[in-house]
Amino acid sequence: MASQFGAIKDVADIGDNENSARAPDLPMSFDCLRKMPIRSLLIASALAVAAAGCAGGATKVVAEAAGMATTAQEAKPFVQETRPANPAYIPVGSSVTRQAPRKPVDDFKKVEAELEAKRLANEAAGNQARALGSATVPPQPAKLPTN
Fold first, then answer.
1. 109 burial via Cβ count (<10 Å: 0-12, 13-18, 19+)
2. Alpha carbon separation from 82 to 1, 17, 76, 108, 121 (Å, rounded)
3. pLDDT confidence of residue 136
4. What's the whole-number mean pLDDT along residues 14-31?
5. What does the alpha-carbon distance between residue 60 and residue 124 come to, in Å, rounded to a whole number?
6. How many angstroms separate the CA atoms of 33 and 31, rounded?
7. Does residue 109 have a pLDDT over 80?
8. Which of 18, 57, 63, 97 has a beta carbon 3.0–4.6 Å from 69's, enabling a disulfide?
9. Integer Cα distance of 100 and 77 in angstroms
10. Quick one: average pLDDT of 56-85?
11. Dihedral of the CA atoms 47, 48, 51, 53 (nearest 10)?
């Protein structure tokens, strides 16, 4: 039986011919950079550095004028009214301690007993449902009309 993809080739031949899955060589390679004048390359790199440095200084002003960067907007009035000016945030990585009362051991024992009682009740309900399910006769399949 013939393959739908054509004749089967030797594995050694696949890499270097038209049946290869390799991407074709693109005309834009490093040879193109060697042919580009140095002055154009310097201008392109300077523009890239200017665009990358939009975070501050004169380049940010130029980028904003060109429409490539934006300034942060001021918060809306309702946001300014509802948020405190100086929130008391706990800094990340700090070791702030607070006084938290420990629960007595009796409270833990009481919670553990409640959970154990709930588990036993769930198991009993499951066993009852299993017993009722096995005693129920499955329904008969629907009868199709014969016309």
1. exposed
2. 77, 69, 10, 40, 48
3. 83
4. 54
5. 71
6. 5
7. yes
8. 63
9. 38
10. 78
11. -110
Q: What is the pLDDT of residues 115-145, one digit of tens each?
A: 999 999 999 999 999 998 888 888 899 999 9
The verdict on pTM exceeding 0.90 is no
Task: Report CA-CA distances (Å) from 61 to 49, 57, 83.
Answer: 14, 7, 31
pLDDT band at 74 (very low <50, low <70, confident <90, very high): confident
List of residues 6+ apart from 70 with CB closer than 8 A: 64
* 96 neighbors 90 (Cβ within 8 angstroms): yes
Q: What CA dihedral angle connects 40, 42, 46 and 52, to 10 degrees?
A: 90
Q: Which amino acid is at 41?
A: L
Q: DSSP 3-state assignment of 8? A: coil
Residue 23, amino acid: A
- Hunting for tokens 């070791």 — which residue is that? 95
Distance separating alpha carbons of residues 53 and 63, to the nearest angstrom: 9
